[in-house]
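Hypothesis: this fold can be encoded by more than one sequence.
Test: take the structure tokens below, design a sequence, compare later.
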């Protein structure tokens, strides 16, 4: 009897240790507001990624190794439907990210549907986080956004230096109707992040063999965070374009002021954006933004001033 009780106590201790070494987390963000775009008012989220649920988990395998996963679902706040962002054919429940991986001293390796390196990093250098009507994000031109059946490697941070690289299968990618696919989507990013300085050089080759190069930089001066984007990429087999932007975030207590300007030089499109964010807490904020597009390459509807006003809660 005593031996049985002792064995049960030992097994319970091991079970407790095992459970303490693994975790599963539900996180996300809910955003809703009023948007005026193209002269029309609507209700919705300020960006497709701002209404999302993320299931993630990590297990300590010992010896410095760990296993992890991420499943990310986007939805439309106004009706609860799946929100496919800019590609209406992306209607999978976890179309944004769905991967499993192993990590350790070597960095980590991820397998599944994954945001590719150039698109992962360019959004980190826009004061509006690629959302809101005021965003001055350069957009990645035609770089792969998310690739199916991808293998993604991330190196450890080596004195501020890091490398990301990814390759995906040529088959099974989400493509617009009427287009063909042949090349394997590939990409890499080399970056430095230490102290107030961030810089990333990224490359992408998408399924049609369209290539994009991006150079991104940021400097946190304390009173303001300054960001820069430059991209050059193919829009057809024989034509490439250049885009660049500058933007800043200026924190003033609970209020953050945002401003940005982007110029798509070869496409004759310019945009200026302004925004204010008021933090009610660390997880909840109110926002308002305005954006104005100009240039001969923009349509008359696109040139109409855009405006949003809303609330975001993260959990």
């Amino acid at each position: 009897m005593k031996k049985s009780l002792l064995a049960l106590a030992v097994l319970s201790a091991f079970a407790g240790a095992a459970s303490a070494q693994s975790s599963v987390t539900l996180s996300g963000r809910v955003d809703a507001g009023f948007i005026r775009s193209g002269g029309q008012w609507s209700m919705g989220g300020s960006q497709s990624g701002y209404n999302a649920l993320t299931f993630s988990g990590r297990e300590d395998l010992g010896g410095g190794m760990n296993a992890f996963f991420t499943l990310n679902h986007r939805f439309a706040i106004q009706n609860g439907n799946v929100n496919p962002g800019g590609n209406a054919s992306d209607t999978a429940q976890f179309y944004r990210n769905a991967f499993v991986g192993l990590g350790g001293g070597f960095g980590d390796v991820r397998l599944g549907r994954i945001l590719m390196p150039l698109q992962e990093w360019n959004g980190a250098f826009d004061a509006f986080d690629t959302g809101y009507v005021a965003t001055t994000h350069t957009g990645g031109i035609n770089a792969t956004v998310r690739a199916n059946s991808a293998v993604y490697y991330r190196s450890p941070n080596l004195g501020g230096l890091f490398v990301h690289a990814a390759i995906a299968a040529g088959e099974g990618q989400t493509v617009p109707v009427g287009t063909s696919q042949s090349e394997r989507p590939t990409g890499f990013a080399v970056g430095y992040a230490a102290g107030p300085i961030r810089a990333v050089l990224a490359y992408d080759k998408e399924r049609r063999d369209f290539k994009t190069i991006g150079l991104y930089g940021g400097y946190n001066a304390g009173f303001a965070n300054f960001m820069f984007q430059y991209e050059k990429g193919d829009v057809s087999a024989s034509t490439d374009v250049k885009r660049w932007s500058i933007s800043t975030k200026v924190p003033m207590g609970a209020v953050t002021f945002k401003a940005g300007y982007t110029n798509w030089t070869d496409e004759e499109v310019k945009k200026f954006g302004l925004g204010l964010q008021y933090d009610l807490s660390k997880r909840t904020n109110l926002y308002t933004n305005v954006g104005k597009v100009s240039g001969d390459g923009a349509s008359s509807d696109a040139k109409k001033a855009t405006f949003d006003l809303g609330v975001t809660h993260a959990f």
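Helices lie at 2-20, 117-122. Residues 43-314 form a domain with the Porin fold (CATH 2.40.160.10).
Hypothesis status: open.
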